[in-house]
Design brief:
Number of domains: 2
Low-confidence stretches: none
Shape: globular
Distance between the termini: 25 Å
Mean pLDDT: 96
CATH architecture of the largest domain: 3-Layer(aba) Sandwich
Strand order of the largest sheet: 1-9-8-5-4-2-3
Largest sheet: 7 strands, mixed
CATH superfamily of the largest domain: Type I PLP-dependent aspartate aminotransferase-like (Major domain)
Radius of gyration: 21 Å
Structural class: alpha/beta
Helix content: 25-40%
Number of strands: 12
Length: about 375
């Protein structure tokens, strides 16, 4: 079976780590700071990188720093992994969901703008920010999103866990947000060998605060002085080391993903492919397309018979979870369609170009009747 995700297990990395850690620490190792600086340099960032234990923790740190006692609502998409909403609720904040674009699976900016224009003033005064989720390595018009956020004085948070390396107007999408967060979970395009994450912050004082919050609320050099209420969310040195090793080959990974994407878009004749902003250079983390609801089960079984994993990643909208329900309801018909028809196929780095071409050939040979 050709799976959508394949766990990386590079013996060379382990051998190098075994030698390296004769001279570095497992916690607060030199390689952690080196990773943060190398990522800033590699992606040409205008924001400061602060590593932590997971993408979920990164979002928690962002929301903790952004907290306002008079504004307790965040706007986000209903189509995402649970953490983009559950962390909001965990901090006793409220959510409003805006539907995704009809042409793709991303937050619909026109619907967002319309909602804010027509929003009841009492609710509008409570909205603190927007959490924009960049799914499958793709994102929407970030210039337009920033204009909307600025117009309504809203914080812009980017959940970029799936879009590490994605560019909009020739620069990293991480640069466009007040806070952007990423996950290095093993299934991600840039992944560690365990949990790991990073938060990127525009303001220097916010960066300094994040560094202290993730370290139980105290500075590294002074453990007796608790400056903020924090928690333990340090990225351990081993994961930082693995990520440093992988960063060297990241450009080659992106190039191969681009080859897969070109094969995919030039040869996919059977099903509709989502449409995105022309100023986007995506990392192509996952490749997706729409299969009509009435044949999607048959198609997934057909692919399974051909030993190719194919599935709907998000089968349930976030607000369909009782504990993640929004403060006010909105129409989410496009997002609902995605839970019924948006499928993904394998395109990870361990697949050869020849095998990937065969995957597309098999898809095109599917007979719906």
């Amino acid at each position: 079976m050709i799976n959508i995700f394949k766990q990386d297990h590079n013996k060379y990395f382990f051998a190098k780590a075994n030698k390296y850690f004769n001279n570095d620490k497992w916690i607060h190792g030199k390689c952690v700071n080196r990773l943060e600086k190398q990522i800033e340099k590699k992606l040409k960032l205008k924001v400061n990188a602060c590593s932590c234990n997971s993408g979920s923790d990164a979002l928690m740190i962002a929301l903790t720093i952004d907290r306002d006692p008079n504004r307790d609502i965040y706007i986000t998409t209903p189509l995402s992994y649970i953490a983009s909403s559950s962390i909001v609720k965990f901090l006793n904040l409220n959510i409003i969901y805006i539907d995704v674009n009809e042409e793709n699976f991303l937050l619909d900016l026109n619907k967002l703008e319309t909602f804010l224009k027509k929003c009841d003033r009492k609710i509008l005064k409570r909205i603190k920010g927007i959490i924009n989720v960049e799914l499958f390595g793709f994102t929407n018009d970030l210039h337009k999103l920033k204009k909307i956020a600025n117009k309504y004085n809203l914080t812009l948070i980017g959940d970029c866990s799936q879009s590490f390396g994605t560019l909009f107007h020739q620069q990293s999408t991480l640069n466009y947000y007040d806070y952007s967060v990423v996950s290095f979970y093993p299934t991600k395009i840039f992944s560690s060998y365990g949990d790991g994450g990073m938060i990127f912050l525009k303001k220097k004082n916010s960066f300094k605060k994040a560094m202290i919050i993730k370290n139980n609320g105290h500075e590294i050099v002074n453990k007796n002085n608790c400056k903020y209420l924090g928690f333990n969310s340090r990225l351990d040195s081993f994961q930082a080391f693995i990520l440093l090793m992988k960063l060297k080959n990241f450009n080659n990974l992106i190039k191969k993903k681009k080859i897969f994407y070109d094969i995919f878009t030039n040869n996919m004749h059977k099903f509709k492919i989502p449409n995105f902003n022309s100023n986007l250079i995506q990392n192509n983390y996952l490749l997706s397309f729409y299969v009509k609801k009435n044949i999607v089960k048959k198609f997934i079984n057909y692919m399974k018979f051909k030993n190719i994993e194919c599935k709907i990643i998000y089968k349930k909208l976030l607000p369909e979870n009782k504990i993640l329900r929004p403060i006010i309801p909105t129409n989410m018909k496009n997002a609902k369609k995605c839970t019924e028809s948006l499928v993904v196929i394998p395109n990870h780095n361990n697949i050869s170009i020849k095998i990937f071409k065969n995957i597309i050939k098999i898809i095109n040979e599917f007979k719906s009747k």
